[in-house]
Amino acid sequence: MFGVLKRRPLVSVCIPAYRAEAFINETVQSVLDQTVQDFEIVISNDAGYVTHSLNALKKNPKIRVLTPRRRLGWVDNSNAALAHARGHHAMILPHDDRLAPTYIARCLEVLEQDAQAFAAVSDIDTDLLKRPMIASEVCGELPERIEHVMRNLYRGFTYRALMRWKPGYAKRLALIHNPPHDAFVDTTWIMQQACLGALRRVPEPLYFKRYHANNTHTGWWELPAPDLLQAWQVHCRQMHTIVAPHMPNKAKLDQLLDLRLDARRVHEAPPEVKRLITTPRLT
């Protein structure tokens, strides 16, 4: 009996939640409907916010609900949920998004086919755009992955990726704050993931992202221009710090940092930041 209780599930789905009443049932149900059923759901209900739906959900033996009493914010709440993941694989699922029934199965297939892959994520459908958002891949040896992320990637697709998981990864993959607004943290996380292996794409829109007024990233584009530009610069330097131990060629790494700081040269950099860099008073 004790051994059964200690068995690691195949997958841990970690849901950082806050004021989630309007969405949490639909989000959790999309996990319960997966074709792969060997999973646990870890919900971290930030600040113990009163969410009546959780009272019923926590009765399900597959669901654990954490209740941090102080307000963590989305970064530390994501970290809190991941810290309790027991699975051989883990992923973050924001409380207002949902998965197609085959999301986990298809991500597992991609990981099984590529021993060098650390994570897999599908294309993303939304209620805002008319076509799916295509997930980017990061492949090759470690130096190639580092350069590719520095030159190309902004979109935080792999914040939602299914990752291979080991107990020590909760600390190694802790999301890094970018105070005071934590802008671009999900993109910094791409580099943290890429240091552990390739990031692969499932070429189907099996993940649904919901856009609404309270989306975390929505507030980033409302920041005063100097704050937004400073957040981008901090983000770039954090990425430089993450990969410095893995790149002995310091001159090459410094060149990549200079390139990324000029968001106009980064393929997927947000237009809002590119426009700021072309504004003389902010350069």
Features:
283 residues; alpha/beta; Spore Coat Polysaccharide Biosynthesis Protein SpsA, Chain A; 17% strand
Care to describe what's here?
The chain has helices spanning 2-6, 24-32, 53-57, 73-83, 103-113, 142-152, 169-172, 185-194, 225-243, 250-261, 271-277; strands at residues 11-17, 39-45, 63-66, 89-92, 98-99, 117-126, 162-164, 198-209. The chain contains 11 helices and 8 strands. It has an 8-stranded mixed beta sheet with strand order 3-2-1-4-7-6-8-5. Strand 1, helix 2 (24-32) and strand 2 (39-45) form a beta-alpha-beta unit. With 283 residues, the protein is an alpha/beta fold. The chain has a domain at 7-99: Alpha-Beta Complex (Spore Coat Polysaccharide Biosynthesis Protein SpsA, Chain A), CATH 3.90.550. Helix content is 37%, strand content 17%. The chain is globular. Helix 8 runs parallel beside helix 9 (225-243) and helix 9 (225-243) runs antiparallel to helix 10 (250-261). The model has no long low-confidence stretch (mean pLDDT 93).
Using the 3D structure, state the CATH architecture of the domain at 7-99: Alpha-Beta Complex
How would you sum up the major sheet?
8 strands, mixed
Computed over alpha carbons, the radius of gyration is 19 Å
Instruction: List low-confidence stretches.
Output: none
Number of helices: 11
Number of strands: 8
Q: What is the CA–CA distance across the termini? A: 64 Å
Would you tell me the structural class of the helices and strands? alpha/beta
Instruction: Give the proportion of residues in helices.
Output: 25-40%
Question: At the first level of CATH, what is the class of the domain at 7-99?
Answer: Alpha Beta
- What strand line-up does the widest sheet have? 3-2-1-4-7-6-8-5
Q: What does the overall shape look like? A: globular
